[in-house]
Write a structure and sequence with these properties.
Number of strands: 0
Strand content: under 5%
Helix content: 40-55%
Distance between the termini: 27 Å
Shape: flat
Length: 176
């Protein structure tokens, strides 16, 4: 807020030095969130983030499958936006997971070579197998998706007559 109001000499911050000096790191100051970070969740997510990033950079099968799924999911999101913009309908097409795309590349160390099978694609490394186990179908590290946010907004529109799955999730945390 200080940056936004830098030209306003009458601006005073909601948190003053007295409140900051009397507060503990684990308490709330007025309407603000607690200061600091959640070390427990960071400790749990950090090794998974390292595995994900390292595998996406080094494994040839996962790198190619990631490019394909990112491109396909971007196209799906654009198609949904165009459908809502021009047709007025809100469709929810699920994202393509990376596991089927990775297996569709026919990795040579999973499927036998051509005389005995269709294994002609880039190989999966041991990190690739671990990656597909953790992130193959659903990504546990992904934040709340843009689609979920759009679905929640669409379900709150007046005259919405569509059955929204998990509609109760849209109203968690809302106090009305």
């Amino acid at each position: 807020m200080a940056m936004i109001n830098s030209g306003n000499y009458k601006y005073t911050d909601e948190i003053d030095n007295k409140a900051m000096s009397q507060s503990d790191l684990g308490t709330d100051i007025g309407d603000n969130n607690p200061v600091g970070i959640d070390l427990a969740s960071m400790a749990v997510k950090f090794p998974l983030m390292i595995l994900k990033a390292l595998t996406e950079l080094t494994d040839p099968n996962i790198a190619l499958a990631k490019l394909i799924t990112d491109g396909a999911n971007a196209g799906i999101n654009k198609l949904e936006d165009l459908g809502e913009e021009y047709l007025g309908t809100c469709t929810d097409i699920p994202d393509i997971p990376i596991l089927p795309v990775s297996m569709a590349l026919l990795p040579m160390n999973v499927f036998p070579p051509p005389p005995f099978g269709p294994g002609i694609g880039p190989p999966l490394t041991p990190l690739g197998f671990a990656y597909l186990t953790m992130f193959g179908i659903a990504d546990p590290l992904a934040p709340k998706s843009e689609k979920e946010r759009k679905r929640c907004q669409a379900s709150k529109r007046e005259g919405a007559n569509r059955d929204y799955t998990k509609a109760a999730d849209c109203y968690k945390g809302e106090e009305e």
